[in-house]
Design brief:
3 helices; mainly alpha; 88% helix; 2 domains
Length: 89
């Protein structure tokens, strides 16, 4: 049996109306649930980033990469100090 869009839309409107009658608690519950699901996802993301970073700095070409990073950091530091000097003048 095929449901018409009109019936589905009226059901959705009715459930939304019931949520409003309860003082908007339905929206609050869904927001709380979204925060719970984000925590494990953030931990997984941090673990993946840590693994990638450890491979990058401890892997097969780590010595070259650390040297490149050190050069980049010195260049960035020099740029920041130069901008601070121009601001002081």
């Amino acid at each position: 049996m095929i449901k018409s869009n009109r019936t589905t839309k009226s059901m959705n409107d009715a459930s939304a109306h019931q949520g409003e009658q309860k003082g908007g608690k339905q929206h609050e519950r869904s927001a709380r649930g979204a925060r719970r699901g984000a925590r494990p996802l953030a931990l997984i993301g941090a673990a993946v980033a840590g693994a990638a970073m450890s491979y990058f700095f401890l892997g097969t070409q780590a010595k070259r990469r650390r040297k490149e990073l050190k050069g980049w950091a010195l260049k960035a530091r020099a740029d920041v100090l130069e901008k601070l000097e121009t601001l002081q003048e």
